[in-house]
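task queued by scheduler; priority normal; single chain, no ligands, no partner chains; default sampling; output format set to structure tokens
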Amino acid sequence: MKNRIISVLIISVFSFTSIAQKFDGGVMLGLVGSQVAGDLYGGFNKAGVNAGGWTSLSVSPKSEFRMELSYIQKGSRENPDPERDRYDTYIMRLGYIELPFLYRYIYNERFEFETGLGFNFLIHQGESFNGYETTESPFKGQNLCFLAGISFSLNDNVRIGFRTDNSLFSIRKNRVTGDVWRFWDHGQFSDALVLSAYYRL
């Protein structure tokens, strides 16, 4: 009986070690360029940061699932442009805690592709027009985003990734002027391009 218990414990330890070896993780830091579809402005002019951590589970030599937890800044910006007869200043600042769940395809030792969904939780907001704060249309506290990207390995510990991060639902609670149609509803939708460095711990 004692030998059987010892055998079970040894098998359990080796099984746990085998599973643990499939997990990977680290930290990330990146730059964000964002815009809002439907706000009457164009271009990824709002700069921000993306910082957090990640963990992944390898399920085959070519596939893995990844979960991230990060702080990401999104929004929209319009600066005066006298040459185009535009003199207004507009800024929308949105800060989210983002929780992406991704499937990653390992193409080869250098390149990996990813796609998945990200849950966004709004933690701070700000919007101003010509220097005056506006609160006419409040923002939603949560959203769901579609993510897709590619990453490139620099060495065993560092990867550079580029992805698009697009909201599936309107970021506002109410309809506003300029609303556009996306998928199943009208509204304003956040679009972001994210360039990040990933460091494996």
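post-processing summary
- Residues 93 and 124 are 8 Å apart (CA to CA).
- The first strand starts at residue 23 and ends at 37.
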